[in-house]
Structures are given as C-alpha cells and as structure tokens.
Q: What sequence folds into this?
C-alpha cells in the first residue's frame, strides 16, 4: 500500500499541499499521514504571528481532513512533532515506511523562505529513500470549496 506523508510547519501552513495529497490518496487508494511540525523554539520566526500557531493550524488541517475523509473514505492519520523540522521529518519517513513525501513550496514573494526551503529539502532528500513532491501554493484558503465528484476546487 502507498503511504503518503504531508509535512506542514506551523509557521508556513499549506492548504494546497494538503488538498493535493487528499485528492491523490483518494485516486490511488493510499494511506495518508499529516505531520504538523511546531518549530517554535528552533530559532525560526513565524512571520504570520498567532494566526499560525500550532493550535490554529491543527484546527484548520483537522477540519479539512475530516471533511475530505468523510466524503472520500480516505484513511488519514494526524501527528504532531515538536522538534527540528528536518529531524522530525526524516525520522517519521523512516519509521513509517513512507513512499511519497508531499511538501509545499513557499508562497510567491518569500524568496528568503524559498532558498531556505530548497536547502533543507536537499538535506532531507539525502537521508530518505521515498519520492518527494513539491506543491506550490496556488489557492488561497478562503477560495477552497468541496465538490464530491471532483474533490477540492
């Protein structure tokens, strides 16, 4: 069975990666896991302030997951990691035999984040053996609507 992991940071949550992964999991009958990594205390500044704290992001993801899995029958697991992003991600992939990692590319206009993202992704890629898919942020979270036949639009 295919196992998909969506890695989400509290400082940079991605709706597009979650939506893409849920739709893909439905199409290929995969098991999907969401790993919410709270990087506070890691020395990274969460630019969105309190709107992207662990509780708020977790609440948004769980609502999206609940609605999608109820409609599509997708098996979803949800985990929270509180350590450094790279080590949490690598450990999870290795321990859970993940076959596909889905991550979100930083939103347009965040060039500093994009450079750091690519550097971290290259470090992660050297330590894991699964495929990696990068999803760019194309939709705003307020524009998401569910359609039972087509998935998320």
A:
């Amino acid at each position: 069975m295919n196992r998909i992991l969506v890695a989400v940071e509290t400082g940079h949550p991605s709706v597009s990666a979650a939506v893409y992964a849920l739709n893909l999991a439905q199409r290929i009958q995969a098991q999907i896991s969401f790993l919410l990594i709270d990087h506070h205390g890691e020395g990274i500044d969460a630019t969105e302030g309190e709107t992207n704290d662990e509780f708020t992001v977790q609440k948004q993801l769980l609502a999206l997951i609940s609605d999608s899995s109820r409609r599509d029958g997708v098996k979803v697991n949800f985990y929270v990691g509180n350590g450094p992003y790279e080590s949490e991600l690598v450990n999870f992939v290795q321990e859970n035999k993940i076959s596909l990692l889905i991550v979100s590319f930083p939103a347009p206009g965040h060039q500093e984040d994009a450079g750091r993202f690519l550097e971290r992704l290259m470090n992660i890629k050297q330590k894991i053996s699964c495929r990696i898919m990068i999803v760019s942020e194309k939709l705003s979270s307020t524009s998401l609507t569910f359609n039972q036949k087509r998935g998320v639009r």
